[in-house]
Amino acid sequence: MNLSKLSEILQAEPKFRFKQVYQALYLDLIDDWQQASVLPLALRERLNIECPLTIQAELQKDASDKRSEKAMIYFTDKVAVETVLIRQRDRRYTVCLSSQAGCPLGCAFCATGASGFTRNLSAEEIVEQFFFWARRLRHNQDVEKIDNVVFMGMGEPFLNYDEFIKAVKILHDPERFNLGSRRMSVSTAGITEGIKKLSSEKLQINLAISLHAPVDSLREQLMPIGKKYPIAKVLKTVDEYIAKTGRRVMFEYIMMKNTNDDDDDARALANLMRKPLYLVNLIPYNTTGRFQASSPARINTFQEKLESMGVAVTQRRSQGQGIGAACGQLAGKKK
Ligand code: SAH
Ligand code: SF4
User: 20 lies in which domain range?
Assistant: First the structure.
């Protein structure tokens, strides 16, 4: 798929073409310009050559997991990323988008980090992943809706800030996908420059911070980028973000057995997180090899400990483990 020449081509057309083309692309979700029967034949043919709509994708389905689907999307240079569709209740869906092919940050628990970094994605390539799922659901558009978008696939969105935010604006644009910004969430490993920039956007997108450890020594082992962005620096920036936006911030904490899940960790974490508009989200560890998951009982105890110390806590239900589609398992390679 490549829409880079679209505006140039439409400039030579009468004004109303723009509306027709947007309707066909973003509402009818066509995957071949021939389906846009309101357009003149010659224009359809030209668009098919210069703005191809076909998405090169490989769908991975797993019979054991009916709630999520994963797809590998191939771009024109053959670089590929993974994207996930997660079914919520009532035919509502969450789409998880990748912002980079691979990730340069190399977190110890993350499959994407282990796969290395290939390149940043363009905004169009980020949105292409959304197009793929929207088209897949199109035949049932009345009942099936993509409700939420999470930038929690491969890569660190704030190391590709400009393209990431451009993608958000395309999804949000009333003339295009018209997705409310409150329905979008971005997760960062704690790149403070990105947190600052986001606080100046006129967008109500939700912010999540990958914390995963209550002290720098452990966090640096798990997330090497923690050396550049120590916990105190990240939290100071988050506090400024909250002061400016009044929005709540979620802190992600992957529960890893005998690593970050004992009572001392809970106490240390509580001392950091006991603030208004802070919310801790405990995440079950999806196996990527190096660590072990905390038991459900341990996660519950950890949650109770945090709550008893005045912290707001939720647990994330993990989905997509069967197809390696859960958080941190996106590797971008054929297995
Ligand atoms: N790079 C960003 C966004 C992508 S990762 C970030 O790190 O925040 C999205 C989420 O998946 C993050 O919270 C990340 O920490 C989490 N994650 C990574 N590996 C995981 C694993 N093995 N199990 C569970 N969650 C994982
Ligand atoms: Fe990159 Fe996020 Fe994975 Fe860390 S957890 S390696 S920042 S994608």
Answer: 6-50
pLDDT value at residue 217: 98
Higher pLDDT, 326 or 43: 43
Residue 242 lies in a domain: yes
Best CA proximity match to 246, nearest among 300, 299, 204, 291: 204
Same-domain check for residues 19 and 68 = no
C-alpha dihedral (137, 62, 333, 102), degrees to nearest 10: 60
Closest ligand 2 atom, CA of 104?
1
pLDDT at residue 319 tops 80? no
Question: Do both 39 and 84 map to the same domain?
Answer: no
Whole-model pTM? 0.94
Active site residue 327: yes
Ligand 2 neighbour 112 (Cβ under 6 A): yes
Is 117 in the same domain as 28?
no
Task: Count how many Cα atoms sit within 13 Å of the Cα of residue 192 in the half-sphere of its side chain.
Answer: 16
